Amino acid sequence: MELLEVKELSRNFGGINAVDSLSFEAKTGLVTGIIGPNGAGKTTVFNLITGVYKPTCGEITFDSRNCTGLRPDIIVKTGISRTFQNIRLFKRSTCLENVLTPILQRKECSIVSALVRLGSARRIEREAKEEAMSVLSAMGLSNEANRVAGTLPYGLQRKLEIARAIAASPKLLLLDEPAAGMNPEETLSLVDLISEIRRKFNLTILLIEHHMDLVMNICDHIVVMESGRLLFRGAPDEVRRNEKVIEAYLGKSANKQKA
Amino acid sequence: MSAYIPYITHIFMIVGINIIAVTGLSIFTGFTGLFSLGHAAFVGIGAYISGILTYYEYTNYYVALLAGMAGATVASLIIGIPTLRAKLRSDYFAIATLGFGEALRVTLDNLDITNGARGLGLEVHTTPIVLLFSLVAVLFTASNFLKSRYGAACIAIREDSIAAEMSGVNLFRTRLLSLVLSAAFCGLSGGLLAHYFSFIKPDMFMLVQSTQLLATVIAGGMGSLSGPAIVSLVFMSLPEILRWLEMWRLPAYGLLLVLIMIHRPQGLMGYRELTDFFVIFKRREKGGKN
Hints:
The structure holds two protein chains of two kinds. By secondary structure, chain A is α/β, with parallel strands linked by helices. Chain A has helices at about 40-50, 70-80, 95-105, 110-115, 120-140, 155-165, 185-200, 210-220, 235-240, 245-250, 255, and strands at about 1-15, 15-25, 30-35, 55-60, 65, 80, 170-175, 205-210, 220-225, 230-235. In chain A, strand 9 (about 220-225) and strand 10 form a beta hairpin. In chain A, helix 5 (about 120-140) crosses helix 6 (about 155-165). The model of chain A has no long low-confidence stretch (mean pLDDT about 90). By secondary structure, chain B is mainly α.
């Protein structure tokens, strides 16, 4: 079943078609990868799905509801959550506070009871904190809970961002270059981590990535983009063998060098 | 020594009234990250509405205080809805509030009911007990607010507005709520001030006062309630302590501000609270990890 369905999606920036009538699906429970050379429009697709940009035309259906052009905070509530290519943490807050923020936004608490901090408000705070700690420990960050996010090493910042995205309790998780700046070992452990959280939190994942070993390892389905358009889509093996993909993305001689 | 008690009480009164307004601005500028150059206008609205109500004997003092708060809240909605909906960036928003402050002064100067530039003479109603009660209530609700989902949303917006939205935060509503709460506190401060000094005139609520509130928040620490409160104590009592400096008092005040900005650019308390230090202290005593 398709959890996310993107139909004829386009976005125009002052005459340039960053995304040009792109269609693809993400099936429930699977990992779908989006690859393509720099400037292919991959991050723009993420920004369109999450409501950061409004599409020029086209339709986005999530969980059989039309989500085209909704505000980001509403899209989060329908069950889509994401990380960013250039890490966007709440840098001066602690790791716990980072993860706590989306959890608290899901809880109902009237402004009056928040101001007086009635018993119910305290209970919500406590529950949210427990939930946040369990997300942190799932990501192996429980020892850093009280550390200020901006002081974490790069790899942990990436992990914390994933933790915060999971804390929004999504059905679909969008990861924008989760392995960017990681060495091969870290990338490998990230592959394990992603498979683990997918099982644990019952997630469907859509990810943008340049590390081919990660993409080929983890994705069930791959969407290849070039200059805003769909170039090819299929299983990793098909993508690896496809002439057009090899030519556009890996370069003409790449199949001889590595494949 | 006992001769000094009224004098010290006076200093604590002006400090307390100032802390209430500073706490209001701290929620908006310190925690939500939006700059305002017009918060003295909310103090002014609170002062004038409550002052007019007691001056013409429409209501008693306590109702007038609440009405002053309500008036400042309504004013914050009027200025906040169009500007925050337009997602004005922080500096543009500051200019909008600057214009709002000036518009208020001109209005107060020209209305009959406010007695124009001559001002209103009022009775003294703000006693130390009333002030203490208000101050505790304000600090209590402010710190509760910051612990709640609303406060978490404000801080998230200050740190990264796009990531905040992707955490489920409604930018417009959260910013507006933050403005409304801060205006309500400033309005209360105004009502207390009017009935303490027993005299108000339009030029008590101008850009100079707005700037001073902002300077107090920045020097105290953006993202701290206790920092600005401590700095407020220093700034308000400094002119008294430095009386012997006579005309050099203002340069001394400026020098202090410059020194804080050089040596503690994050403000006196930065993004921490006084209570955080007690927690650290306790942990050390226990011999814990931190």
